[in-house]
Design a protein that fits this description.
This protein is α+β, with helices and mostly antiparallel strands. It has a single domain, classed as Winged helix-like DNA-binding domain superfamily/Winged helix DNA-binding domain (Arc Repressor Mutant, subunit A, Orthogonal Bundle), CATH 1.10.10.10. α2 packs across α3, α2 crosses α4 and α3 packs across α4. The protein is globular.
């Protein structure tokens, strides 16, 4: 059995663990779709969700999993998302910051 970030994470058992198990296969597909979208350019998780026509609630965790796996990186830039909050801009290319 693989663990986070290859599978959705959860902090405690119970319903959180059940939910993580239930979305396991969909999460794998969404993670790859997110990565493919980010290959087109730098975006926030909300922008990726828009491109995929998916809920930000299903995409944000997939972006976090990609970051934890070392496949996606933070650019250091931020942009406003739909809610007006500042969101990290992500990329598939690792930046070296001096």
């Amino acid at each position: 059995m693989t663990t986070y970030p290859e599978n959705p994470g959860f902090k405690v058992g119970g319903t959180s663990a059940i939910a993580a198990f239930e979305v396991k296969e969909d999460a794998k597909i969404l993670r790859e779709q997110c990565f493919q979208v980010l290959l087109r350019g730098e975006m926030t998780a909300d922008e990726v969700a828009f491109m995929l026509d998916k809920s930000v609630l299903s995409i944000r965790p997939r972006i976090s999993e990609l970051v934890a796996a070392g496949r996606v990186f933070k650019t250091g830039q931020r942009r406003k998302n739909e809610s007006g909050h500042s969101a990290e801009v992500m990329t598939t290319k690792q930046h070296v910051i001096f």
